[in-house]
Design brief:
Elements (H helix, E strand, L loop, with lengths): L6 E2 L8 H14 L7 H14 L3 E5 L2 H11 L5 E4 L6 H7 L4 E4 L22 E5 L10 H11 L2 E5 L7 E2 L2 E2 L6 E5 L12 E5 L2 H10 L4 E3 L2 E2 L10 H32 L5 E3 L13 E5 L7 H10 L2 E2 L26 H9 E4 L7 H14 L2
Parallel strand pairs: 1-15, 3-4, 3-5, 5-6, 6-9
Antiparallel strand pairs: 2-10, 7-8, 9-10, 11-12, 13-14, 14-16
The structure holds ligand T4K.
Family: Belongs to the DegT/DnrJ/EryC1 family.
GO biological process, one term: polysaccharide biosynthetic process
GO molecular function, one term: transaminase activity
Length: 372
């Protein structure tokens, strides 16, 4: 028997429509639609406060924010990164004419393995771009140590890490810059959107110029900047979303715990553990379908689909399998055994605030059903 209504891997949280009307009214009244208007400024400071960071620049999406972060730090040459991510991570390097150098991941966290970074450093290496995959923090201390030793910059792709904290507070404070995504599929969404977390006002100013074509004033352009500005409508929506984000994360936490309980005894299913975070955001629920599970990951994926349950294989294929990357020496599967295995086994189960306990039970039931 299959579910009548499809269950997707995620569903964006939306507050009641009538709550957004007063925000729209303000925009209609003042006629400021974009270019750093009042909602843009408000959301930047509200997010700084919520996230526990000093400076933040809003963007139209996470990808343009990544591209701009690399520009802001004038990164060139080679950048060490992970093959186990959404393709935008590596694309941001190609958009800057930078050569990605792929390094394998840690089998427990599925984040860039610091122990393998040093061997990939060459005289052309200028930076490291790790990803806090699924919102699980990277080993930020070990990565910083390597960066300091070799005089490299660190730009975190923190697209999944909204609100995540480790021992020292917000994980977004690590590295030279961190980049968030506020895409519809993220824990905190502004329809489309993103941000760069910057360490100081000077860097934020440069980033603000870069996202506005490089304009410094009406008649001065200092860099070939891009149009990366978040519009007032997205920023206003962000202000409203921020009010409910703690409840959103709490609801996700409940679903996460329910899955873990239901799947704990299922032979061959490994629920990915945390990476030592003190505050998590439960942005994804990845499981690994191990070799002792009765059917393959893809067979399980199809079985769920047959029940109208649309899990996703994030991150399969690996970035290094795409044509624009696979010719690079570091993209060779032999260089990336852990990532290759994870890509073969992983599947992200549906997780979003309005997913009911009953639906979670159904999904876990399909998975447990094979190993009975
Ligand atoms: N770095 C990392 C590590 C990232 O994961 C991402 C984005 C980025 C950088 C780039 O950030 P942005 O430039 O996107 O801000 C999705 C998202 O489009 C993408 O933002 C995200 N990562 C990636 C992991 O997932 P798809 O192609 O899987 O999305 P899609 O459209 O298949 O959506 C998945 C499901 O969500 C749908 O089956 C139904 C549901 N959904 C989706 C949308 C867009 C809705 O219910 N409503 C919606 O509006 O990439």
């Amino acid at each position: 028997m299959s579910n009548n209504n499809p269950i997707y891997v995620t569903q964006p949280h939306l507050p009641p429509l009538e709550e957004f009307i007063p925000y729209l009214k303000k925009i209609w009244d003042n006629k400021i639609l974009t270019n750093g208007g009042p909602f843009h400024r408000q959301l930047e400071s509200a997010l700084c406060e919520y996230l526990g960071v000093e400076h933040l620049a809003l963007f139209t999406n996470g990808t343009i924010a990544l591209v701009t972060a690399l520009q802001a730090l004038r990164i060139t040459g080679e950048v060490i990164t992970t093959p186990y991510s959404f393709v935008a991570t590596a694309h941001s390097l190609l958009w800057n004419g930078i050569k990605p150098v792929f390094v394998d991941i840690d089998p427990d966290t599925l984040n860039l393995d610091p122990a393998k970074i040093e061997a990939a450093i060459t005289p052309q290496t200028t930076a490291i771009m790790p990803v806090h995959c699924y919102g699980h923090p990277c080993d930020v201390e070990a990565i910083q140590k390597i960066a300091d030793n070799y005089n490299l910059k660190v730009i975190y792709d923190a697209a999944h890490a909204f609100g995540v904290q480790n021992d020292s507070g917000s994980v977004l404070r690590h590295g030279d810059l961190s980049v968030l995504s506020f895409h519809a599929t993220k824990v905190f969404n502004t329809f489309e959107g993103g941000a760069i977390i910057c360490p100081d006002a000077k860097t934020k100013l440069r980033i603000d110029q870069l996202k506005n074509f490089g304009f410094v004033d009406e008649v001065t352009v200092v860099a070939p900047g891009i149009n990366g500005k978040m519009s007032e409508i997205n920023a206003a929506f962000g202000m409203l979303q921020l009010e409910g984000v703690a409840d959103v994360i709490a609801a996700r936490k409940e679903i996460d715990h329910r899955y873990r309980k239901l799947l704990s005894g299922v032979k061959g299913i490994r629920c990915l553990g945390d990476a030592g975070e003190k505050v998590a955001n439960y942005s994804y629920f990845p499981i690994l379908v191990e070799n002792d599970y009765p059917v393959t990951r893809d067979a399980l994926y199809q079985a769920l689909k047959d029940q109208n349950i649309f899990a996703r294989r994030y991150f399969y294929p690996l970035i290094t399998d795409f044509p624009m990357y696979r010719g690079l020496p570091s993209a060779h599967a032999g260089n990336l055994p852990v990532a290759s295995e994870a890509a073969r086994k992983v599947m992200c189960l549906p997780i979003y605030p309005s997913l009911t306990g009953e639906q979670v039970d159904t999904i876990a039931g399909v998975i447990a059903g094979f190993s009975k």
